Amino acid sequence: MTDVLIGTCGWTDPALLRSGWYPPGHRDAERRLRHYATRFPLAEADSPYYALPTARTTALWADRTPPGFRFDVKAFSLLTGHPTRPAALPPDLRGHPRDEALRAEIWTRYAEALAPLRDAGRLGTLLFQYPPSLTPGPEAESFIRTARERAHGWPFAVEFRNPAWWETGRTASFLSDLDATAVATDTHEGMSPVPVTTSRLAVIRFHGRSPLWRTGTKEDRFRHTYTDRELAEWLPRIRPLTARTKELHLLFNNCCADAAVKAAEVMRDLLAPSHA
Fold first, then answer.
1. pLDDT in tens, 79-99
2. Which of the two ends of the chain, N or C, has the fewest CB atoms closer than 10 A to its terminal CB?
3. What is the pLDDT of residue 275?
4. How many Cβ atoms sit within 10 Å of the Cβ of residue 222?
5. What is the distance between the alpha carbons of residues 99 and 105, in angstroms, rounded to a whole number?
6. Which is the CATH superfamily of the domain at 3-275?
7. pLDDT at position 2
8. Is 185 helix (H, G, I), strand (E, B) or coil?
9. Domain coordinates in residue numbering, the chain
């Protein structure tokens, strides 16, 4: 039977902290995460996209969560071709050319930092989110394939921010050949396809339906309060997945106050057996 795990993209967003969702006395990192893990079995760790984590940090994440809890962890920006500030790189690598040798070294350090999560059974998947500038074609496929080869043996999920990837007929088979999970999305542009490319895992990320998805500030792009009806639209697409994958991860990225945790709670209720 498929495990459907629901959570949010991050648990330390300043707007969430200000919303009052965390009980009084849960302002420190340990108590926040411990409380979050009593409410949801899944979280996305976004901070590794901006800076390489340390093994000490991920070991603490594992220690502060119960067995069965999962972290989906975003790949560091350089690994996916996003612009990366020099200050985000380790000091000894800041003068290095932005080439495959640098990405290989970054991958080695990233993997070492995530080893405690993997060893503790807390790692759901690595999430390689590729930018809109990555357009379909042989060069892009080679770039992704190289990343997958480095991450051989690791769970590997891919989200495309360029919709052209799902306008071709080969993307699902390409990801399946890589043993990579295809990440479906919900945005202002609509609901993307939900192809099952591994029997291990399916992932859907709910980014919100802001009309400023492509043009606004980060806060503007993800500001949205899902209605029950908008979430229920997904049920006919979600339920068939439970017969095709071992785990299904539903992650809410619609930031601003407690909008993401509330949407996650509504989706959990909609998927409860009493609503089936």
1. 999 999 999 999 999 999 999
2. N
3. 58
4. 24
5. 10
6. Protein of unknown function UPF0759 (3.20.20.410)
7. 81
8. strand
9. 3-275
